[in-house]
Design a protein that fits this description.
Two copies of one chain form a homodimer. The first copy, chain A, is α/β, with parallel strands linked by helices. Chain A has three domains: 207 residues, Aldehyde Dehydrogenase, Chain A, domain 1 (3-Layer(aba) Sandwich), CATH 3.40.605; 165 residues, Aldehyde Dehydrogenase, Chain A, domain 2, CATH 3.40.309; 29 residues, no CATH class. Helices cover 42% and strands 19% of the residues of chain A. Chain A has 17 helices and 18 strands. In chain A, the strands form four sheets. Chain A has a seven-stranded parallel beta sheet, with helices on both faces. A five-stranded parallel beta sheet of chain A has the order 1-6-5-4-7, sandwiched between helices. In chain A, strand 13, helix 15 and strand 14 form a beta-alpha-beta unit. In chain A, helix 2 runs antiparallel to helix 5, helix 3 packs antiparallel against helix 7 and helix 14 runs parallel beside helix 15. The radius of gyration of chain A is 26 Å and the shape is globular. The C terminus of chain A is likely disordered. Chains A and B meet through strand 3, helix 10, helix 15, strand 14 and strand 17 of A and strand 3, helix 10, helix 15, strand 14 and strand 17 of B. Strand 17 of chain A pairs parallel with strand 14 of chain B. Chains A, B: Belongs to the gamma-glutamyl phosphate reductase family. Chains A, B: Pathway: Amino-acid biosynthesis; L-proline biosynthesis; L-glutamate 5-semialdehyde from L-glutamate: step 2/2. Chains A, B: This is glutamate-5-semialdehyde dehydrogenase.
């Protein structure tokens, strides 16, 4: 890793060259580099936290003078209980994951002696632009190295001291590994973002980690593909047949466990026939914890028996509320009017979500499995959940070790993005002289026979197992599956 | 399908709404629509070819006056032997493929009663901008419908008559199916492209099907992800140990079977020690078929014994030649100087390819399997082939039925893009009240146990098979594979 004052072009072209070397390293070499980073950051905790304290001091002054938000300071604080340890654990978790490279997930016999396979490979060079969270450096560096990608990191000025401290430590740690020094570039040049975004000949993917404004400005300023999300407008749909205590617990978790997070719930949809029985207890629990509710007419009316103190937290919703990501202790509430059938209510709720949500994560609370499955099938968001909190949308919770971010893109990677989202594939053909014009209407026929996939070593074993499976299936009168 | 004069915004918002209906249709309904399109186009061949003849007449005049290239006219001609039948067969091939939707390729037990799965889904709304090839309408409509995506098609003025004829027939055919009429929109409004490219709230992916200039202008004009390739600069690396006859056949196929195609070879890399034995016969065969060779000094020198007539086709290469996609009967030739070892030559050839190729398809001709595997591992292109023609890079040849195009993107889909490249996934969780704050350092531990994937019906069967597999493996002392 190098903490560089190089020009954006120098940094990017060096990263490109290094990416080719990194791409062909063994998994054990990439893992050794992660061990080195982990051990170095473990040993230097005090140094990093001192640097972080300097960033926090500046940030807190900016909060006092109204230039920065309190939630940014929270994200900046590496000293918060368990945060540094989580960062270290994340590196080990990533190290422990299967090698994402060299996996063959598709193999076809095109013709005798002509085999096509699809093999996972690194994307190449990533550009990660982040704002306040300094632990992102360790997360991203781990994921990038494990997935064989070079990365250029550009941090915000709020975390500059933490950034420099972590970068110096990681850089030193990497010199003892086989990962090329230029594979992870930490750019501290001022005004580097705009020129970096023009370098599509070197950079393959941009991942902005920050607020809506950052993401939009990145998207507008580049022809490089951008992965991430501008908004996290998540909703939860509450039905009369759900369990009250479960609904209360889930919505408290979804709204309050981290209101500034992208996966917090922002809109609550309530069936009209659930207003009295389910919404009132949910609202009481939320209000008791200080949540402000922005209600439509019907849902507000359902709360008329609340105390005047409670009612001070209940406001009228405008149309804008259903398009707003509050990132705060506020929840918009909308009633789905009673319909002739349960399915029709569902259709309305789904239509609201598909029109208003940001395609991040949406949930349904119900005991009716038929309705739940319809919801799971119809909502077009990266995450669609049944009877759990939208806050579950997270790479660590999904078992990815850590994540580079959550994507609301409609291509490549959606939802929490871990190692797999940082890989792509190449199509390999091993032939024996075949030419294209030999095939077709007047020539030879393609065989197009799907072969077992898996790693190369795995194939011989697969072949035997496939035979066994087929025998087993035919003994049981089962079909062949695929 | 509607052939529309609607505004770009109307067309795109109607496509968006229709996409949600199309996304939840059964595979059988989507297949029925393909049958209807096939039958209608089969019955109306004469009508379509008459319209196509009118386009050809205009185009041929434009060629005479130098406004259009001959290769464009070739692409426009639907009457060319077998082309119409290939188009019809492509629809049936796509129909016959497995349903790409609803496939669960990843499933994790997060905790008891909390199951995560990743399920394939349509992307949403595609915008396809194409130039001359009118058969693209049938290909794209089939792939879009089968993959559950709405599509907006905008054709070039050269194919306007063919476009209108095909669109009218397909539109009528679709009225008898369950596919919503607005799911396939054929926009004939003039100057619609620039406004369509701004509609990122409705359109999820743009696929330009045309020349370099079209692709670049699309990329520069939109924040919507673009899938495709601007250039197809493919190379082939010729080594002394390859079989001469095979090399000649493969290079004739790669250069001449369709010089205007993106997967034709444009650069030949030759090891110095292969110049006499392999390059000379290859060059003679190519020159005899009218190919012009643009050679570096060493390779030109190797051809000094050719006749003066043959030598009239041998020119000097400039640096620019190694960055040029000729789309014509021209081939750039570069010598890889003799190195101390076979591996070092390979490294130089790979470095040339990674620096100059467009990441489309590159091939090696050798009998040395160790060298071939190193090449397959190191070249960073969508397709990397051994002992076969770069022309194999094609969706139909890969067994995809047909393709929406070939992608040199580094994310989402690379190489020939069929149905799978038109899908994405959603993460579904089925829970029973779990909340995020219950887990972590002080709470419950995640289970993160990988479960068998496959369709829902497949799971029960999988469970039994997995048990059997594990028994089988443990009996044999084998590891568990993944």
């Amino acid at each position: 890793m190098s903490l560089t004052n190089a020009s954006p072009e120098q940094a990017a072209s060096a990263a490109r060259l290094a990416s080719r070397k990194l791409a062909v390293l063994e998994n054990s070499d990439r893992n050794d580099a992660l061990t080195a980073i982990h051990d170095a950051l473990l040993g230097a905790k005090a140094t990093v936290l001192e640097a972080n304290a300097r960033d926090l001091e500046v940030a807190n002054k900016a909060v006092t003078s109204g230039q920065l938000s309190q939630s940014l300071v929270k994200r900046l604080d590496l000293g918060k209980k368990g945060k540094y340890e989580d960062m270290l654990q994340g590196i080990l978790d990533v190290r422990g994951l299967d090698d994402p490279l060299g996996k063959v997930d598709y193999r076809t016999l095109l013709d005798d002696g002509l085999v096509l396979e699809r093999k996972s490979s690194p994307i190449g060079v990533l550009l990660i632009i982040f704002e306040a969270r300094p632990e992102v450096i360790a997360n991203i560096a781990s994921l990038a190295i494990k997935s064989g990608n070079a990365a250029i990191l550009k941090g915000g000025k709020e975390s500059i001291e933490s950034f420099k401290a972590i970068a110096t430590i990681v850089s030193e740690a990497l010199t003892k590994s086989k990962v090329p020094n230029d594979a992870i570039q930490l750019v501290q040049t001022r005004d580097a973002i705009a020129p970096l975004l023009k370098l599509d000949q070197y950079i393959d993917l941009v991942i902005p980690r920050g607020g809506n404004e950052l993401v939009r400005s990145v998207k507008d300023g580049t022809t490089i593909p951008v992965m991430g999300h501008a908004d996290g407008l998540c909703s939860t749909y509450l039905r009369a047949d759900c369990e009250t205590e479960m609904a209360v617990n889930i919505l408290l978790d979804a709204k309050l466990s981290y209101p500034a997070a992208c996966n917090s719930v922002e809109t609550l949809l309530v069936d009209q026939d659930a207003l009295e029985s389910k919404f009132v207890p949910v609202a009481e629990a939320l209000v008791a914890k200080g949540v402000e509710l922005r209600c439509d007419e019907l849902s507000k009316k359902a709360l008329s028996k609340l105390s005047s103190e409670q009612l001070s937290k209940v406001k009228d919703a405008t149309d804008e509320d259903y398009n707003t990501e509050y990132l705060d202790s506020i929840l918009a509430v909308k009633t789905i009017p009673t319909q002739s059938s349960a399915e029709t209510s569902l259709v309305l709720a789904v239509a609201h979500i598909n029109a208003h949500s940001s395609g991040h994560t949406d949930a349904i609370l119900t005991t009716n499995s038929g309705i739940a499955e319809q919801f799971l099938a119809s909502v077009d968001s990266a995450g669609v959940f049944w009877n759990t909190s939208t806050r579950m949308a997270d790479g660590q919770r999904f078992g990815f070790g850590t994540e580079v971010g959550i994507s609301t893109n409609k291509i490549h990677a959606r939802g929490p993005v871990g190692l797999e989202g940082l890989t792509i594939y190449r199509w390999l053909i091993r032939g024996s002289g075949q030419i294209s014009t030999a095939y077709g209407s007047s020539g030879k026929q393609w065989k197009h026979e799907r072969l077992p996939a898996g790693s190369d070593e795995w194939v011989a074993q697969d072949a035997e197992e496939l035979k066994l499976l087929r025998e087993h299936r035919s003994n049981k009168g089962l079909s062949n599956g695929h």
